[in-house]
Amino acid sequence: KAYVEELKRTLTELVSQRDASELERRHSSQRDLEQREVRFRVMEEFLKLRGRNELNVARWVAILEDNFVFTLPKTDYRKSVAAKSMTRQVSVDGGINSS
Hints:
The chain is an alpha+beta fold. It is 59% helix and 14% strand.
């Protein structure tokens, strides 16, 4: 009889561990999905602001971190000033600065 009770207790522990593991997996999956959705929305807003050539700094600061740097490659079809660097960077540090 003790053996049967030990088996029941072991089975109960295994079921509890399995349920806890499954719950954690679902929570992790949900967090990943929410994080992906937020990243998508931020990128979507970034592209909208860039496409509209938004000058309102508050709109940019709302979605970008302070150390954000956006680098565009130099392209042949754009006129560039001689002696300029090969890339253009936009960074946010209390405001939007172009260099």
